[in-house]
Design brief:
mainly alpha, binds ligand UYC, 2 strands
Amino acid sequence: EKPDIETLRQQLTTGKTQQQYSAIAQLGQAGDSGLACLMDYWREQPQITPSPLLGKIHQALYAAQTPATENFLRNYLPSGLVPLKSDCQVDYQPLAQHLIAQEFLEGDRLSLQKLCEAAGEAAQNRKWLYFSEVDKIPVTDFHTVNTLWLTYSEGKFGYSVQRDLWLAQGKDFSKLWDKIGWRKENNWTRYPNEFIWDLSAPKGHLPLSNQLRGVRTFEAILRHPAWTS
Ligand code: UYC
């Protein structure tokens, strides 16, 4: 039996975080009255700043594709929820689009591509990041990419999430691989089919960093000043 809209509204306004996410998902599937409830909740916010909760509502309204939600998104989110700041003229709009649409595989590929762009011409042409180029990526740009991942993943994905897990494992990469599902029983997870491209993945599973050329690039990402400033 489905809970009614009023119950879900209550759950959204007073529930714990996981219950709020669940209420948003159900309201998004509950037709026009459920969507209206999500749009009311949005309008009642004293201020709009990027958060996984508002990101989840943004995704639900985006997925609904009704005239009312499309109109709402045009009026209230003409330039999205996350400010797409860059200190090196990188356009993060296509990345934002994929993550809003919950297209995590495409978003993942684009994240690596955008980091290469931000790191300069050599990385952009090579199409992968050399470890010594990571510190060329501005703090602002790392913040933008990371905030996009956090906002559109219930706070589950992002470099800062991977960093917290890495610190919690005493900076032991071997333990981290198992924790974030990049290795299982001593076997590397194979790209792309063995990775999990939705929110059923373990915390910190995305975005990926190819380890083919060693751990140094990923380590440089986790040690970037972005996560301590
Ligand atoms: N791949 O195995 N990876 C690729 C991962 C490794 C390999 C891309 C992650 C191990 C090859 C991404 C893991 C390994 C290619 C990732 C992983 C390996 C490739 C696309 C778990 C062999 C094809 C972006 C640690 C033992 C290269 C990119 C090509 C691609 C990510 C092999 C995002 C997290 C050590 C052969 N792997 N990668 O950078 O040219 O190419 O198509 O990490």
